[in-house]
Amino acid sequence: MHSPTSPTGKVAIGIDFGTTNSSIACAGCSDAIQLAKFPYLEGLTDAYRSLLYLQQVKEGGVNALKSWTGPEGIEQYLSADVKGRLIQSLKSFLSSRSLHSTEVFGRRYTLEDLIAKILRDLREKAQHQFGIKVRSAVVGRPVHFVGAETQEDDGYAEARLRSAFELAGYESVEFEMEPVAAAHYYESTLDHDELILIGDFGGGTSDFSLVHVGPGVRQRGRVASDIVGSAGVGIAGDSFDAKIIRHLVSPALGTGSQLRSLGKILTVPNWVYIRLERWHHLSLLRGRDVLNMLRGVHAQSLEPEKIGALIHFIKEDLGFHLHRAVQKVKSDLSNEAVATFQFSDGFVDLKAVVERASFERWIAEELEQIARCVDSLLSSSGILPQDVNMVFLTGGSSFVPSVRRIFETRFGENRIRGGNEFTSVARGLALKALECPHPAP
User: How far apart, in Å, are the Cα atoms of 335 and each of 132, 156, 225?
Assistant: First the structure.
């Protein structure tokens, strides 16, 4: 492995701001790449949950709005008797031209404001740990942002992300595609040159790059053609989560149930359950207008106990607990053929045995879109599967067996590699930052 320490003594920062988790790495801070670690549940974690928790508190007899992010946000949320507002997966909104701001406890915040709160806390905690001022960084971005349909959409999303970094106190930010960053990390393990396919599976997007890497590439100097091609699709871990919620949770909360209105039998509005399936939309259900509508539905429902459970779920802001239960069953299904889904808060109690084969049927359409994206990248790049020396898979959903099979059937199991699946992008971004001419952190 080549040393990440710069011969010039330069220190460089890489930041992976993820849909679900974020991480920040420093190259040149020590002999090895150093990852910032954060206290969580009496231990330490290098995965900083990309969430924001806001709560009204009394300070001097006056209501004040306080915010916490990451592990601290989780702990504040779990300890609160009366829940505030927990917001997850904000990155998924970046390409949306319809969501500019949202109201929280009577105050309006732009999306950039909310993301900046997470990025500012991440920067300040890293500064304290690394012992340096963090003013610049190389930051990861997906090949295509969630919801982006054109290059203009991707440019709009990137500009909003840049603005959030500026609001958070970063003076200089350079973007690098996340799979290319993972390629930089993988390259640091090589003693020979390879053509590699990187598969980076995040919460919101699955991204792929074909890249020439190795000591020979570094020695001659990188050229644009070393990145043979990149492709991405707005389907990843959150999309898989949505199918688990659709099949295991929503039915118990009244999806498809009926109500009697003005002598007619109607179906409960489905858009509520579509939002329930998406982590970034879930917190938006906790608005006064939505809850008032649901109370009206509850009064007319033919299954009022299910609608009552839905109202309780939204009022109590149980999204984090649901996220934890969904992640557990998804992880268990990666290791076992059968797993048990369990979600309970004393009012809403759900338990179901799930077979891996059922889960794979639920996500079959998403798997097909991921496979088409990979095949399209190979075709457009003029690369045959046998031309690829190695496939490096990273990100949480790279552990899902049906995702891995996409690559095993095309490249063979012996050419699949992994490692540091949750931090390889941040590590690669820090290595990339060492090569950049931008100012030191």
Answer: 41, 39, 39
User: Helix crossing, 364-381 with 237-248: angle to 10°?
Assistant: 160
Q: What is the pLDDT of residues 234-276, one digit of tens each?
A: 999 999 999 999 999 999 999 999 989 888 898 999 999 999 9
Average of per-residue pLDDT across 416-436:
91
Burial of 268 (0-12, 13-18, 19+ CB in 10 A): buried
Cα–Cα separations (whole angstroms), residue 306 to 111, 301, 310, 313, 353: 33, 9, 6, 11, 20
User: Which distant-in-sequence residues (6+ apart) come within 8 Å of 116 by Cβ?
Assistant: 164, 165, 167, 168
- pLDDT over 70 for what percent of the chain? 97
pLDDT at residue 7 above 70? Answer: no
Q: How far apart are the first and last CA of the chain?
A: 24
Strands 62-69 and 52-59: antiparallel
- Residue 117 near residue 109 (C-beta atoms within 8 A): no
Backbone angles phi, psi at 148, to 5 degrees: -75, 130
Q: Which of 430, 436, 433, 428 is nearest to 178 (CA)?
A: 428
Give the residues across from 267 on adjacent strands. Answer: 258
Read off the tokens for 421.
């699946």
Contact 139, 174 (CB under 8 A): yes
Q: Which tens digits make up the pLDDT trace of 183-218?
A: 999 999 999 999 999 999 999 999 999 999 999 999
Strand spans (E) along 395-432: 416-417
Task: Indicate the helix (H) or strand (E) that contains 185.
Answer: helix 178-187
What is d(CA 420, CA 422) in angstroms, rounded to the nearest whole number? Answer: 6
CA–CA distance, 227 with 418 (Å, rounded to integer): 20
Contacts of 47 (CB under 8 A, 6+ apart): 21, 22, 23, 422, 423
pTM (2 d.p.): 0.90
Mind giving me the DSSP string for 290-314?
HHHHHHHHHHHBSSHHHHHHHHHHH
Please say whether the beta carbons of 329 and 317 come within 8 A: no
Q: What angle do CA 138, 143, 144 make, to 5 degrees?
A: 120
The CA–CA distances, whole Å, from 388 to 86, 176, 348, 402 equal 43, 22, 49, 21
Give exposure, 146-182, as e/b (b: 16+ Cβ within 10 Å).
Answer: bbbeeeebbebbbebbbbbbebbebeebebbbbbbbb
Residue type, 384: L
In angstroms, rounded to a whole number, what is the distance separating the alpha carbons of residues 183 and 230? 12
